[in-house]
Amino acid sequence: MSITIGQLLAVPELKLRLVHDGGCNGTESIVWVHATDVVNAAEFSEPGEVLLTCSTNFPLEDMSNANDLSLLRRDRRKLGLSSSFKDAESAKEPYDELWMHYVSSLSRAGVMAIGFGVKMKHPVIPQACIDAVKQHNMLLFEVPEEINFSQIAKTVIRSQAEESENVQRVMYSAQRELFEASNDRNPIEAVVNRAALLSSGWAAFIDNEMRIISISNQSMRKRAMTLAARMGKQKEHDGDTAKSLFGVAGGAIRYCVCLIGRKSRAFGMLVVSTSRSGSYGDIFRSLGVAAADALMWSLPQHIERFRSESRLRAIAMGELQAGRVQSAASIMGPLWNWTPSYPARLYCVEPFGVSNDMDFATMSIESACLESVFGEYEDRLWILTSKDGCDAVERWIEGSGALDSGYAAVRGPRSFPGAFNKAVQNLLLHRAGSRDSVLDITPHELVDPDLAQMYAEELFAPLKDVPAAENRSLMATLRELMSASFNIGTAAGRLQVHRHTVENRVVKLERLLGLDFTDESARVRLWIAYSFIRDAEQA
After folding, report:
1. What CA–CA distance (Å, rounded) separates 108 from 106?
2. Using one digit for the tens of pLDDT, what is the confidence trace for 249-284?
3. 62-72 pLDDT, tens per residue?
4. Selecting from 3.40.50.2000, 3.40.50.300, 1.10.10.2840, 1.10.10.10, what CATH number does the domain 449-537 have?
5. Where, if anywhere, are coiled coils annotated (predicted)?
6. pTM over 0.70
């Protein structure tokens, strides 16, 4: 760490004597040491400096020198003050005012402390200087005659050189750790956690939709969103030139917000915060930028890999929905180490669609829900997990910002088709009464899929005893009848057979199935049963 004002004053070889502490606790790091005797020193000073002066351009306080009055007039004119006083007796108040103005301007410039060298001109520090320092609450120390200002400057410069080397060593190690983390299968979470550890604070990644994708400390969610909004306002104001935001909030809390991406491809922003103070600020700024660079480098290729795998995930979920578990398992093998065990639970989450905005949200499932397989299918996200993985999935759903979700039990491989429908039904029940309507649900989603499948199998069982050719003609007739709203003539036309042929087939179907096709309730049950049989045949 760069030398602090307290450490400088404690160097025994320098023999510095503290005159007034200015309310400082000694932990403030020195930015630079500046030696000058000019009265307008504030014009050349910067925040965090220590100003060293012998004040040779200031008159003596007792005005014992013949040139002191003219010197006082010159100094006051240089500072824009009135020089209308006659003699040494009337110059006491202007002299005090000169020091007050001098110290006041240094305080406004952010000068940390004044080191006053005695006996070069002034035998002691002028009382007017001490009074002004106390008035403006600045730190003042005395430099003895035998100590050259260059000794003080060398002490500070040597410390700063050591600090610069230390920063380079620390940042080299930090950059290496951050880029290693960016190679993780979930680089966002890995880099966020590593940045939080290195900064001794917390970190978060927020996407373009202002959603927290990953955060190292959940209690900081509100603070992260506040800082992200502040970065958003700066971007609105500065346009594409806005890349990062640094500052101090709530006293000693330092923060760094970096946009990740380019003009044509923005990913989001990284927020890093620490409560460490002192010269750590230089390291912290570099750390935040390095973490953002690591994500900038890794995200494009990781997203490409994830999107490629997403296509396989969608196919796997489609195979499970159709009941082809072995086919799904062969696809899942290269993607996940975990394979389904029963009983399991299937979650349905929406709104999730295959889009750039959802990549970061779905990517986070990989590390948040280890005992799970997932994929986007038919504009919904499906997560299949073991009994022990349910808590992790539900925590992820709660933190993902998804509006609605539902789930269903999976008792074994054969229950997947029904579980998909039941999960949707459960989701729709959760949606009921919310701002999203349930009016767009499909007829299948209105009935219990397992019960409907059992009913369909039993209803159409008698047709299995009919010769294959006749079975096909009867099922084709049934299909066209339902498509034509049971209009005999329309169905006959589509089948390209005589009307009486269709009528005869209807009689036989009613006898085999035990249904009266003129009864509306029977038609509804027939439609439901046929749709489930048809889906099973297509699968």
Report:
1. 5
2. 655 568 889 988 866 678 889 999 987 765 556 677
3. 887 778 888 99
4. 1.10.10.2840
5. none
6. no
